[in-house]
Amino acid sequence: GLGLSSKKDENFGEWYSEVVVSGEMIEYYDISGCYILRPWAMSIWEILQAFFDAEIKKMKIKNSYFPLFVSPGVLQKEKDHIEGFAPEVAWVTKSGESDLEVPIAIRPTSETVMYPYFSKWIRGHRDLPLRLNQWCNVVRWEFSNPTPFIRSREFLWQEGHTAFATKEEADADVLEILELYRRIYEDFLAVPVSKGKKSELEKFAGGLYTTTVEAFIPNTGRGIQGATSHCLGQNFATMFEINFENEKGEKAMVWQNSWGFTTRTIGVMIMVHGDDKGLVLPPKVAATQVIVIPVLYKDANNQGIFDACAATVKNLNESGIRAEADYRDNYSPGWKYSHWEMKGVPLRIEIGPKDLANNQVRAVRRDNGAKTDITVANLVEQVNDVLASIQQNLFDVAKQKRDACVQVVKTWDEFAEAVSQKKLILAPWCDEEDVEKDVKARTKGEMGAAKTLCSPFDQPELPEGTLCFASGKPAKKWTYWGRSY
Ligand SMILES: O=C1CCCN[C@@H]1CCCn1cnc2ccccc2c1=O
Question: Is 4 left (phi over 0), alpha (psi -120 to 50) or beta?
Fold first, then answer.
């Protein structure tokens, strides 16, 4: 097919909408905000799921499955956290022609689904820790501009829900899960993220504190919440009476966490690495890491070339590299190069008459276009090296681009200028909520307001006497600010 009609640096929104379809990841659906995840996208989700599932099983976390439907009574139970979200809750009101007696909600998240049963199952301290996870879909009937993977009315995620006897255990667990989310972004998707804590205003209102891995999209100058790991404190334990008899025979409430990452991860990866030729997939998450293309003689015996392609694929697959060959005889090599570049396959191997004669293959990298001739004898070792180099290079380039967007500011004027420059702003802040609200009010505009993204765990030096950029009060912490998704 033809190339993209929009350029990433000229019309990012158009480019993104086009590349997810041309890369055969998404098909648009006839209900707004809903998307079809085609195999090329689903295979990425499955790779991330396999990694995360194996890691949480090492932590003795067990998978379960709770119903999609939430009875209204229990949903309303969590009134203060639900109030902000209520407009997003989708309801079933009919079956066939008849109205349901009582409308039933579709889960937007499962705290209120699970916790009545946590209360039933947790009696004594030997029932702790209780640590469950579920892989499922959730529905949030959002109205702000739907974007494939990034903001959809239904999405896939995992949600973990845990209960502990002590706060110390919960605090440690929050960070252990957050580290898995960092690995998903940095080790698999080659996307740099900042670990930090959400402000009181931006955290999950139902919890005690929220930790997050924050990514940044240089093209739009917007931060994006990558995944969250909340400590819920004893808030839900209070509401759902989740308590246990501790070792001293006293009744005590549990300490809880909840954590989730979603198919948004795939959209962030596409936005960060994609280019004007299409998707660029990090090898770790590419369903096909190497595509082998036969370049045939005009009018001579091509069996040798087909045999070499088959041998190359077999050789690579036997060493755990995901390789395919494209033998379709109704497309030219040139057409195939464009097609597999559009799909973002990390490495192309061309085998033509010259390569055959020299007992080598021609490897072409998707990330930087570099071409190298690889002798058949060293094929597996060199392909592994190139794939590792592509993975690292994608991360290094993304980190350099993200770091180039970071702007440290000390004053309001510097801050306002940095917002207009679409920067990721690092500023000393007094950590007062009404100051944060004031910044949002003062930066409101059609591009959206600047807000806190997170206060990074990795805090730069804050010299005594440093003042908050917005209030002039003594600064308490460095915080990332910016517009966001
Ligand atoms: O993030 C996570 C991680 C996974 C488990 N849940 C937490 C918190 C979810 C916060 N949230 C987010 N959207 C909502 C939408 C409607 C109703 C309720 C909610 C809601 O509670």
Answer: beta
DSSP label at residue 278: B
ipTM score of the complex?
A: 0.99
CB 396, CB 282: distance < 8 Å = no
Q: Checking DSSP bridges between strand 290-294 and strand 255-262, what pairing results, if any?
A: unpaired
Rounded distance, CA 366 to CA 465, Å? 50
C-alpha to C-alpha distance for 15 and 278, rounded to whole angstroms: 9
What are the contacts of 305-311 at 24+ separation with CB within 8 A? 305/351, 305/352, 305/353, 305/356, 308/351, 308/355, 308/356, 308/361, 308/376, 309/351, 311/376
Cα distances from 180 to residues 150, 219, 284, 445, in angstroms, run: 20, 26, 15, 36
Residue (of 452, 449, 443, 442) closest to 478 by Cα position: 452
Measured in Å, residue 333 CA sits from the centre of ligand 1 at 48
Phi, psi (degrees; rounded to nearest 5) at 469: -60, -25
Beta bridge partners of 252: 244
Query: Is the full-model pTM beyond 0.90?
Result: yes
Nearest alpha carbon to residue 255 among 134, 172, 135: 172
Q: What confidence tier does 1 reach under pLDDT thresholds 50, 70, 90?
A: low
The one-letter amino acid code at 368 reads N
Question: Which is the closest atom of ligand 1 to the Cα of 210?
Answer: 1
- Distance, in Å, from the CA atom of 217 to the CA atom of 484, rounded to the nearest integer, reads 9
- For ligand 1, the distance from its centroid to the CA atom of residue 40, given in whole angstroms, is 28
* Helix H or strand E segment including 17: helix 12-22
- In 3D space, the residue among 173, 215, 221, 223 whose CA is nearest the CA of residue 191 turns out to be 215
Two tokens at 108? Answer: 């937007």
Nearest atom within ligand 1 for CA of residue 258: 5
Encode pLDDT of 258-311 as tens digits: 999 999 999 999 999 999 999 999 999 999 999 999 999 887 779 999 999 999
